[in-house]
Design goal:
Layout (H helix, E strand, L loop, with lengths): L2 H19 L7 E5 L5 H7 L6 E4 L2 H10 L5 E4 L8 H4 L3 E7 L2 H14 L3 E6 L13 H11 L5 E7 L12 H15 L6 E7 L6 H6 L4 E4 L1 H4 L7
Parallel strand pairs: 1-2, 1-8, 2-3, 3-4, 4-5, 5-6, 6-7
Length: about 230
């Protein structure tokens, strides 16, 4: 199957998951995760109107952003090191992976230099996996309150990377808990915090994530095929 056929297939599954949950498919943004994939594959999708692409590495995001259509919305979904922040603050439409006050302070500082306001999500380690980045659910509210005080930065919601599993139902509880956490934080009415975005669900479990309230799903393998990390 071609990349375009794969995308349409995933898009149809997104629509069906929304129907099951009684949601409007317009509420869900499908991010095509193009990490390690050539620009030619991204270009194949542009005629379909696809504009949201996700990258894990700063270098790859900036290289692609500089070479491809300015209409593309680039999502920084990988772990972000503080020394790389300056390269993405004016290129990423949304940074999904903010997991510390120090990182947020660096984003705020670099955004100020470039006179932009950066939209971010707080990355929550919903399943408490030692191998994953992210804050604990219990730390999320206090971190949101601290980051909200910084200039040039807006907290738009939460993100999580659920455990890898053969059975997507196993992750339903984590998606449900993240949704509850976002509602709880939204009810605090913190200035500069909206909680309108819930970035959760990947190739193996995005349908369950949508049923549990995801507004953004990050699908790579399901669209572009398996990755070759040897290159």
């Amino acid at each position: 199957m071609s990349v375009c056929e794969n995308y349409k297939n995933v898009e149809e599954k997104v629509i069906q998951a929304c129907k099951r949950a009684g949601r409007d498919p317009k509420e869900v943004t499908l991010i095509a995760v193009s990490k390690t994939k050539p620009m030619s594959m991204i270009e194949e999708l542009l005629p379909l109107g696809v504009r949201d692409f996700g990258e894990n590495k700063v270098q790859e995001l900036t290289a692609k952003a500089e070479s491809l259509s300015p209409e593309i919305h680039w999502h920084m979904i990988g772990h972000l090191q503080r020394n790389k922040v300056k390269y993405v603050v004016d290129k990423a439409c949304l940074i999904h992976s903010v997991d510390s006050l120090r990182l947020a302070e660096e984003i705020s500082k670099e955004a100020g230099k470039k006179q932009v306001t950066v939209s971010i999500l707080l990355e929550v380690n919903a399943a408490g996996e030692e191998s994953k980045f992210g804050i604990t659910p219990g730390e999320t509210l206090s971190l949101a309150q601290e980051i909200a005080k910084l200039p040039h930065i807006q907290i738009k919601g939460l993100m999580t990377i659920a455990p890898y599993t053969q059975n997507p139902e196993d992750n339903r509880i984590f998606f449900r808990n993240l949704r509850k956490l976002s509602v709880d934080i939204a009810q605090k009415n913190i200035d500069n915090v909206t909680m309108s975005v819930l970035s959760m669900g990947m190739t193996g479990d995005y349908e369950v994530a949508i049923e549990e309230g995801a507004t953004h799903v990050r699908v790579g393998t399901g669209i572009f095929g398996e990755r070759d990390y040897s290159i």
